[in-house]
């Protein structure tokens, strides 16, 4: 049975840990709010961009572009968007589980985030590019990742580019997803994206026919690289919102568990202390009775 001194030391250690996890929880909560706002604010732009591209592609006729060219997939690239730090629950584990499902002999990997790069190096997968991005992702960071992947695709080194990232659902739910970035498939129109949104439905109903200069094909060719850049940027925003949300929840759970452990240890301490006092009283009583 542990002594009261051992239990006191353990209570002190757990209290110190609880203070650290509480501080990390508050920091993550502060970053989480900003990251969530950035991710949610970017979604309407994605919808409207798809609408514009849908209108352009509908008027482009027999338009062809290297970024939409479909080829037999012999080699593929995967962009792995992970976090730089841990202590975020099962966030990175769930993400890297999706990466582990890919065939390493026919896949090259591009890492965005330190955890993903460490996993790829540890599992001896072919890492061809490594990028970092800030807590508040910049468009220039996403553009660098996207252009690197576009170069691989346009040079014919890979036939398909996928992205695995954590999609932000809400504070408690984050879902790892794999999406095909290149070749660009069918671009959804605004009507396909809104799915019952009243404001967007109103916008769709008032949509007009556009005149493109110099022509729809030239406009579409100029927009496609920007479309890919922004898709990667939005995925970085979603990944950051997911990371800070998962870390805040994980640190809150750790703090709650530490508080419960302190209560249990305090109860054990009081039991041992009470037993010690009772034993001493019995010894005094027994000694008094024997004397007399």
Describe this protein's structure.
Helices cover 61% and strands 12% of the residues. Helix 1 (4-58) packs antiparallel against helix 7 and helix 4 packs across helix 7. The chain is elongated, with a radius of gyration of 28 Å. It has 292 residues and is of the alpha/beta class. It has a five-stranded mixed beta sheet with strand order 3-2-1-4-5, with helices on both faces. The protein has a single domain, classed as ATP synthase, F1 complex, gamma subunit (Pyruvate Kinase, Chain: A, domain 1, 3-Layer(aba) Sandwich), CATH 3.40.1380.10. Helix 2 links the parallel strand 1 (76-81) and strand 2. The relative contact order is 0.19. The protein is built from seven helices and five strands. The two termini are 35 Å apart.
């Amino acid at each position: 049975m542990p002594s009261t001194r051992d239990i006191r030391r353990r209570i002190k250690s757990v209290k110190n840990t609880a203070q650290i996890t509480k501080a990390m929880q508050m920091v993550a909560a502060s970053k989480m709010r900003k990251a969530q706002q950035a991710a949610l604010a970017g979604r309407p732009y994605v919808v409207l961009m798809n609408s514009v591209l849908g209108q352009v592609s509908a008027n482009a006729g027999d338009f062809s572009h290297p970024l939409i060219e479909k080829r037999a997939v012999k080699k593929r690239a995967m962009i792995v968007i992970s976090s730089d730090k841990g202590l975020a629950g099962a966030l990175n584990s769930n993400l890297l589980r999706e990466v582990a499902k890919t065939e390493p002999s026919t896949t090259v990997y591009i890492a965005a985030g330190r955890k993903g790069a460490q996993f790829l190096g540890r599992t001896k997968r072919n890492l061809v590019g490594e990028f970092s991005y800030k807590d508040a992702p910049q468009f220039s960071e996403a553009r660098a990742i996207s252009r690197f992947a576009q170069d691989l695709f346009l040079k014919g080194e890979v036939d398909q580019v996928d992205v695995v990232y954590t999609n932000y659902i809400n504070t408690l739910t984050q879902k790892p997803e794999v999406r095909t970035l290149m070749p660009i498939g069918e671009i959804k129109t605004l009507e396909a994206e809104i799915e019952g949104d009243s404001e967007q439905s109103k916008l769709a109903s008032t949509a007009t026919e556009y005149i493109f200069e110099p022509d729809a094909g030239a406009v579409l060719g100029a927009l496609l690289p920007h479309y890919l850049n922004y898709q990667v940027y939005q995925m970085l925003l979603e990944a950051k919102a997911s990371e800070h949300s998962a870390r805040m929840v994980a640190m809150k759970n750790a703090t709650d568990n530490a508080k419960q452990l302190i209560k249990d240890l305090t109860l054990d301490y009081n039991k041992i202390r009470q037993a010690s006092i009772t034993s001493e009283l019995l010894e005094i009583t027994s000694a008094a009775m024997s004397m007399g």
